[in-house]
Amino acid sequence: MIPSKEEVFAAYNRVRPFVHQTPVLTSHLLNALAETELYFKCENFQKMGAFKMRGAVNAILQLSEAQKNNGVVTHSSGNFAQALSLAAKNIGVKAYIVMPKNAPQIKKNAVKGYGGIITESQSTLKAREAAADRIQTETGATFIHPSNNTEVILGQGTAAIELLKKHPDLNYIVTPVGGGGLIAGSALAAHYLSKKCQVIGSEPFEADDAWRSLQSGKIETNQTANTIADGLRTNLGDKNFPIIKKLVPEIIRVEETEIIQAMQLIWERMKIAVEPSSAVALAAILQKKPFFENKKVGVIISGGNVDLKNLPF
Predict the structure, then answer these.
(1) Whether this model's pTM surpasses 0.70
(2) Which of the following is catalytic: 27, 77, 194, 278?
(3) Same fold, 5-50+150-310 and 53-143
(4) What does the alpha-carbon distance between residue 238 and residue 242 come to, in Å, rounded to a whole number?
(5) Spatial contact of 177 and 210, defined as CB atoms under 8 Å apart
């Protein structure tokens, strides 16, 4: 069962007071390069710097008062750790965040700055899940998964709703694919808001589990994920995959060199900071020029939380 139109729009109305309606930017030069019309939905300008704020807000707002009193818990080393911390702070809820010991200090500092209570664990998924389970048992906190949670998925889709309200004549929206929350939410938005807009996914060859999952019809995993797009090293889940399988016709895979080139183009030509995961969508469009030629294409810039000491160009 995929979420209904009513659920999709309820999430949109619910999160609006808590998030930025981020700008949509265009670039004549990138349009010429891609031979299409591109509309960049800039979630790098979202609170805490990424689209994940939307899903975190929606998930917390759907909790009962008793659940809110006990707080929320997640495990994440990246943007969702920051998103849940800030969303919880703004709503007046405690956020317990399990982070691997080897997570960058800059990310730990950001989580602390947003009021998140950090528990460090070993970097394996098993260790992270065990720590989150322990916190749930000790505190009664509600676990919120970064991407495989229906309320998170609905929240993430609100960026695409804003984009389609501004540009209702889009033929495609291209999003990066990591855990699957953004693409599933975006696909729901397009499904209910537009008669002609399809959502296409993009991911690195080095972490192409979603592409393989669409081919096989079941959730595939990555044995390794040696990609610069660190936000896309996660796997799909049983809540978002059925939506993706039903509503997403294609996922385009890109090489690491293509990701870096697209990231550099956005920095140089649009003068905005985007993280490597965000550049995957433009890389896919440039790779498949004939497919997108002369179409109107929305691009979700998923985030801008980049390590400035570690730029790939």
Answers:
(1) yes
(2) 77
(3) yes
(4) 7
(5) yes
